[in-house]
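Example record

One chain of 780 residues, shown exactly as stored in the release files.
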Amino acid sequence: MVMQTTRASHDIPAFMPGWLDILALDEGDPMNGLVRAEQLKQLGRAMPFSAAAVLLLGLTLAVIFRHSAAFPVLVVWLGVLAAAVAFGLHKVRLRRAANPDSVPARTIWLSAARALCVGSMWAALFPLLIGFADPQSRAVMSGLHIAMISAGAFAFAAVPLAALLFAGVLVVSLIGMMVALGASWSSFVLIAIVSALVARGVIAHARAIVVHVHAHERLRARGEMIATLLDEYETAGADWLWETDACGLCTHLSPKFAEVIGRPAAEIVGHPLFDPQRSQARNKEELARAIGLKQRFRHIQVGPVVGEEQRWWSLSGTPRFDLLGQFAGFSGIGSDVTEQRRAREQIERMATSDSLTGLANRTAIRSHIQAALDAVSGGGSGGCAVMMIDLDRFKGVNDTLGHSVGDELLREVARRLEGDLRHGGAVSRLGGDEFAVVLSGVNASAARGVGARLVETLSEPYSIRGSAIRIGASIGIAMGVADGATVDDILRAADLALYRAKDDGRGVVRLYEPALHHDAEERRALELALRLAMLENQLSLMFQPIIDLGDGAVVGFEALLRWKHPTLGQVSPARFIPIAEDLGLMDTIGEWVIRTACAWAARWPTNIGISVNLSPSQLVNARLPNVVLSALATNGISPGRLELEVTENIFLNEDGGTRGALDALARLGVRIGLDDFGTGYSSLGYLRTTVFDTIKIDRCFVREAVDANSQSAAIVRHIVGLAASLGMETVAEGAETVEELNAVKALGCGRVQGYFTGRPMLAEDATALVAPARREARAA
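Predicted structure tokens for this chain:
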């Protein structure tokens, strides 16, 4: 506290008082009243010693002149002097008892008058005694005269006006005495020097009093301001002040703290600020060291348990020392940072977790993978596996039912994954419909088993907002550290394995193989090339004829998409169509196929139809009906000549959106065909609720139908019968031999499509094939 006071005083600007400030006689300045009070206080403290000195000098004179005729006069004089001194001491006692903070200027004038009277008594005494003194006594009297000047000036120095008047009248008396005695000039020089020294001492002392009063008053005003601010801070501020003694017991605590803990501050005083047995602390060692070494500390967080709730305080403290330099405790500032800490922890959780599902995000899963790799590298038991999971057919859910349903589906997937892996494994959502799982202490076989179980779990139907939704999952697995020594390496390996799983038909689990790097490079090259294919006219259509088994006539063509790359040559549709689906290009490519197919069909006879395959993404595109109408209108062909083919897999999501899209197309007048019947979902329910014009029997049944007693022959027979009963036509796909042609004809199929009856051909060749029929139609 002494150090703080000294520092504060240094902050006070220096005050240089003038003569009016030193005399302090101006009643208009309130500071002069304070100065006068301080002058009189110091005068009172000096009076007993000064009175004793004056009486002692008087007694000295009495001793010198005890045998002189002037002795009776001197005794009377001493009595009067003693009375005056006693009166002055009495006034001092009264003033000290009153202890006023400010006194009027009149009091200074009265003190100066008393000083002048006492000085005049001494000044009058010396001329009276000089005639009775011998030369030796005169020398003693001169010395006593000078001593009286100094003693009186010292006595009245606190009140400069009184001191100067007292000393002045004695100096005049001394000069007169020296003149009367015919003293040398050196005596007068000595008197001048003494007078100057006395005056300077009086003025310096008076100036010091004025400076002290001004500084003290400024410090007092500043202290009041600080006290007011601290009081407002303690009552209204968010932080609180605390103070402990040398034993660590609380000696002061802001009322604000009582609100924080729900207890009166008085109950905390005399006890430790917090219970270390029921608290946590960041940097406990730092806090303990700072307290033990009595050092300053800042923003140390402690976590006391208040009631049953974990709270967090931030403490800053400074050691206090008494005037003897002994440690007196700590004082400082504290604040409740519980809400800030919780908000920071929430931000940290948001930075490492997925906001939709609550699972770990990509940043957090990287940490899990690194920890698993470190454990394996450090000699831990078993290995670690990283699974990349991609949901099959999730895009169709978003497109048909909306993103809110898609979000609910993702949350349900997350719950299933966490439930399945509750006893081990870190689960995260990387983004979109892609998830990742990290398993520790497993080998490749065990990881494959977990992956197969997850595929089964995720493929179970979901019930969301009254809709039964079916999706699937493909999983790629990479093993650390065999398939990757770093996080990036193992994530890339798992990604490559996932691509292989999706290419292999989805709904499967694939482990990483080194050859997948080469496949990935090829796929990347195909992705880049496919994006340019549309711009550079590399895509084209081939047309495969559909034959009526009754008269052998061509009744239509199926448009087949082909891609001829400048360097790769013909790229199989089985390779590039899944890539186009993944890249989101099928809507654009599909629209081009529809428009191009209709443009060629416009050159054919009106009895020749055209079939176009639709991808699942096209079907759920709201623009599809407008695209179809535009293609028909632009090329001037009737809707009944266009048949749009879909596969059974579109019915995996029983959401009503698929049927709605098909119904909207049917209302346009176009035909709807069901392709590859029997190889997909294979539920007969949708045949009852969805209007199909054609059922195309998959080649796998056609090939085996040659054996009339085979199961496939029976299936084809029943499909034909079912289609006939529902008013649908049947087309047998993939007939490559005369035996297969005769077999499907015998089983009742109305139409056939295959290499035996016609391979895919250029558009010009297809046009030439039906040209005779066109001429005959014109002639008729």
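Notes: DSSP finds 28 helices and 23 strands in the chain.
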